Known about the structure:
Largest sheet: 6 strands, mixed
CATH topology of the largest domain: Glutaredoxin
CATH superfamily of the largest domain: Glutaredoxin
Order of helices and strands: HEEHEHEHHEEH
Amino acid sequence: MTEASPRGRAQPRRKTLLILVAVLFLGPLAIASFFYSGTSWRPVAGVAHGTLFDPVAKLPVVELRDFAGTSLAQDSLDGLWILVYLSHGPCEIECQKSLYDTRQVRVLLAEKDRRVRRLLIAGEPLPDPAYLSEYHPGLVTATAASAGSDFIQAFGRDLNDKSDQDILRLDRVYIVDPLGNLVMAYESGFDAKDLLKDLKRLLRLSRIG
Length: 209
């Protein structure tokens, strides 16, 4: 009876080892791709701290203009994650707190901050540009008039109301993904730490933006 050579016995073990190495290195990538593959990706409600848009609200394409009436540069928002705050007039206490919190969240993202922009969309009367430039350098500003009613109303769904009635809510911070989808909303008085945790998870799992 012929005995198998040591070389022959070692081949199955080598194949098993190669499979294990592949799983260890490619497994996390496969999981990340599964959780975020284009528009089909959805955050998990039990994990997210913010309120999910379900179904996803696709924002209409519009030409946003800043307070001076100039069209925003193409690269100012395109392909980035955006933290949006809607203001109905002068940026007062609630607005100031939300802008401060989103600024701190972006700072704490460290090197990942390049993937995120902050956007203030304001209605008349407009906030003081001097205040915004002093305390919020890098904040992208746009007028609600340039956004148009369809764009503004896309933010307005009452996420706790399952009826068909849309109620415009201006005291929220929103996360918009690089594909232009409304992903999450954070109600007035939200904890900035929760927003930071959600955003870090989104940036870690996403392969866009």
